[in-house]
């Protein structure tokens, strides 16, 4: 299972509305994410609009592609597009900037790297 972390930039002037929209995500969008292989998916929002997303999935490229097959995703992306900055014309789900994982405590402990010196 891959761990994916990504960033996007929410317009700081629209943070309250962005938060409110995510209090009750459409049930069909939630179902599409789960069916497409998005597990343990969370979003974290900083006060300057930095959005950090985290999920686990077997195959991130496949999970992203699978979402394109759900009609609800196109509607959701259209609803959310005005909240984001710097998308350069792409939908937010296509503009995600995945980060390289440089440390994972569980992985290192499991490999014995956490043994005391």
TrEMBL record:
It comes from the Bacteria. This is L-rhamnose mutarotase.
């Amino acid at each position: 299972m891959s761990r994916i972390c990504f960033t996007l930039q929410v317009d700081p002037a629209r943070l309250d509305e962005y938060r409110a929209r995510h209090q009750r995500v459409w049930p069909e969008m939630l179902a599409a994410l789960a069916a497409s292989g998005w597990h343990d998916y969370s979003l974290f929002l900083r006060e300057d609009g930095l959005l950090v997303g985290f999920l686990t999935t077997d195959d991130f490229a496949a999970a992203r592609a699978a979402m394109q097959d759900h009609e609800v995703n196109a509607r959701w992306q259209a609803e959310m597009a005005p909240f984001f900055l710097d998308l350069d014309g792409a939908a937010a789900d296509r503009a995600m900037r995945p980060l390289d994982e440089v440390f994972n405590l569980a992985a290192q402990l499991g490999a014995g790297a956490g043994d005391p010196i």
